[in-house]
């Protein structure tokens, strides 16, 4: 049979003996140690944050004064995000819609090339569109065919711009946004333009994104079409090798030296690789930029 487990004995933390604890210890200085331990526990109990029910640290609801603002700033509860969103919405609130002649704005946009005048109805494919009545901030075209009679928004026929601009922008607002983008030295904030026009920030941000994409595409096409015609001075401080033609006359000595070192290049497997000295090089413009 297994041995019977022995009874767990107390061990004094003061003298180290078993059979009693510090409360029943009779060693010299045990009474003074128990007194100091009681004082320490009382001090910890008074400084504890969990003694009793905690009082309200946030002042009661105020309707005016600095106390209310201070309470808002110091509050960090569950509704903190809702309060911050309320303040943020007040700052980003839409202003009064910019008023203007929408028909003249559409004609101006068509003149500068951002909008195109539709010639046929996209639904029935007939050449019988008529300018409809101006309703609010939209300029529409209407099909004259009796079985169609569809309305078409003028802002949805644009060159390179989003097809959904007619939903969030008026013609006057679109014209002002394009002019503010083209007149500034650097792109203005979409929020500031939206507050000036009186619309939300999202259509302005989409418009500016499309304008930047159009600029990048036009710049890439222009860069690809340009060629260097005359001699160009190149900075060759970091140039160590350059690919040249086999029939070169500018670097003929270097090409001959390279061919003598690497005779396999005579078979036309690779073009000549010439090592250039460090410094300024002058060569004929024959590369795309």
From TrEMBL:
Residues 44-102 are annotated as: Disordered. Residues 63-88 have a biased composition (Basic and acidic residues). Residues 51-62 have a biased composition (Basic residues). The lineage of its organism: Eukaryota, Sar, Alveolata, Dinophyceae, Suessiales. It comes from Cladocopium goreaui. This is Uncharacterized protein.
């Amino acid at each position: 049979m297994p041995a019977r487990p022995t009874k767990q004995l107390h061990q004094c933390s003061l003298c180290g003996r078993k059979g009693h604890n510090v409360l029943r210890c009779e060693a010299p200085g045990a009474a003074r140690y128990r007194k100091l331990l009681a004082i320490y526990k009382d001090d910890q109990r008074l400084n504890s944050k969990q003694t009793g029910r905690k009082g309200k640290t946030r002042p009661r609801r105020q309707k005016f004064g600095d106390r209310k603002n201070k309470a808002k700033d110091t509050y960090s509860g569950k509704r903190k995000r809702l309060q911050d969103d309320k303040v943020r919405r007040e700052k980003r609130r839409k202003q009064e819609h910019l008023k203007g002649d929408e028909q003249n704005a559409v004609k101006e946009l068509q003149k500068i090339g951002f909008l195109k005048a539709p010639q046929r109805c996209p639904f029935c494919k007939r050449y019988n569109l008529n300018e409809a009545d101006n309703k609010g901030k939209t300029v529409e075209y209407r099909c004259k065919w009796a079985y169609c009679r569809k309305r078409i928004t003028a802002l949805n026929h644009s060159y390179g711009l989003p097809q959904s601009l007619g939903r969030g922008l008026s013609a006057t607002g679109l014209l002002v946004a394009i002019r503010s983008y083209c007149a500034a030295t650097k792109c203005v904030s979409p929020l500031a333009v939206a507050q000036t026009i009186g619309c939300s920030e999202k259509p302005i941000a989409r418009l500016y994104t499309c304008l930047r994409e159009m600029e990048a595409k036009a710049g890439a096409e222009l860069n690809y079409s340009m060629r260097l015609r005359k001699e160009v001075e190149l900075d060759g401080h970091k140039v160590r090798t350059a690919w040249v033609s086999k029939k070169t006359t500018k670097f003929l000595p270097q090409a001959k030296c390279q061919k003598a070192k690497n005779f396999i290049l005579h078979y036309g497997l690779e073009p000549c690789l010439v090592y250039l000295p460090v410094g300024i090089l002058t060569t004929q413009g024959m590369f795309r930029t």
